[in-house]
Amino acid sequence: MTLSARQTSALKLGTSVAASVLACLLLQAAFSLFYWLPTRSLRVAARPSADALALIGIALLFAHLAGRSPTSARVVGVLRRSLLIIAPLLVLLCVLLGIAQGIALREFGYHFTLAYHTSKVQALFVMMYEAQSTPVFLGVMALLLAAIAILVLGSLWALRRVLDLALSSRRASLILAGSTVCYGLLVGALLDRNGSMIRELAGQLDEVAHREQRLASQAKKIEGKMKKVRTLKLGDDLRRPTVLVFVVESYGQVLMEAEKYAEFRVFLGGIEKDLQAAGYAMRSSVFRSPVFGGSSWLANATILCRLMVPTEKTYFSLMKTQTKCLPSQFNEAGYESVFVASNTTEFDGDYASRFPFESFIPRDDLGYEGPRMSWSYMPDQYVIDVIERRILATTSTRPRFIYYKLSSSHHPWDTIPPYIKNWSLLRNGKLYDKTKNSRYPDNAFLGGKHYNEGYDESIRYSLETIAGYLEAMPADRDVLALVLGDHQPRRPVAIMDKDPWTVPMHVLSRDHELVERFARQEYSPGLLVKPRPGLVPGLELVAENLFRALNDVTVIESEVRP
Fold it and tell me: Which of 337, 363, 463, 493 yields a CA-CA distance of 20 to 30 A from 221?
């Protein structure tokens, strides 16, 4: 079938219009990624991009200048070639920043910042690699690289297309200008506009350039705020039990409230009865975490320094302060302080200076010779057993303050170790080569069909381990145990925009009078933590609650919060 001249002309026009629309949409998508990827909202993606509109405006300006004289045309040619080199580089940076922002906001609830999060990118990719099979990891990386290439190369083609269209004729320039203005005004009025990614990128680079200066400035502000907070000292009349703090990875309040975890609460009731039979009194409360779904180090810094640490900038600023944190105060009170973290390879000097535990026990010092359990290098039960044999079972004239950063309940919850009732069999961990683990093989770093089941079982394992350990503890050992979460589990187990950023905390001891001191601070009896009305206190108050109980503070006064 032969097309007429009119049909051929109409087809060329239609093809040209379709290509031009596609070009503008590609520019729009690339420069709006930073805004729509965290929400995955088509509404946000459709908002006019300041950068895409600016590039179209530059193309129209080139068309206007090129038609004025041969000299202007030559200058425009040079500028056009320069723009086609610079713009794709800017698009690449904006796309990478957009992907990072999408992961940071969607998974952890904070904005990505080049100055403070770049060092975490490698760790994130290592964690993804180690948490799932190599083929899956490589497949995900291939898709990610393909998406980046499509956006960058597509943007280069789009920019060429827009420039060629603007320079092709006066009529084409007018159509492009009119369409752009109408889209910017009409859609912008209906859906609002996205900001400028170029400006965002410039701001990020400025933060990188002035990083140390701004950290020092925020460090001074932190020190100023902390001066307004009453210092609760561990005095001479201090009750001096050994204090064990078990931070259970991803132990969130969703377990206490969601209908899908009703059976977990039945399980928790059984744990409570077993502990009561072993002579323990228990009280519980709920606290607000500074993070959601991850970034446990920020939650731990909040607990240890009595300061809400919601961002990396706050964290690095805290490292530059002279603020006295929990380990210092226990050291001064005559305690032997120990930090054990089964998934941490080393503790740098800054960390040891800010959190001056007498002893740091990282992964490689625990002597584990068994198999890795998904993200966690070793089971929580093994970690607790090592500390019991090496430290707590030995005679000492000093009480101990031991901070356990446990890891068996870290996502993706695909491998959950069994609880070994006979602790004497654990030894170097080789028995785990032969034990039957619970497996959810479809659970991976990026998602899984059995996240809820794997998560539930992993928390049950960690709590059963802690409870079994406390039950078997010699009755004459004076111990106060704190069991708490660091943050809610990641989506879809808990939803950042729907679920509260809260975690349970339990205090347990065979010294019933000591546990009852927490009743003055609104801790409820037992292990079940009900929703707390009103403003939930932050994890920065955990240390304050502990000090008040140890010092038997009977009058609870309000305190200026930082």
Answer: 337
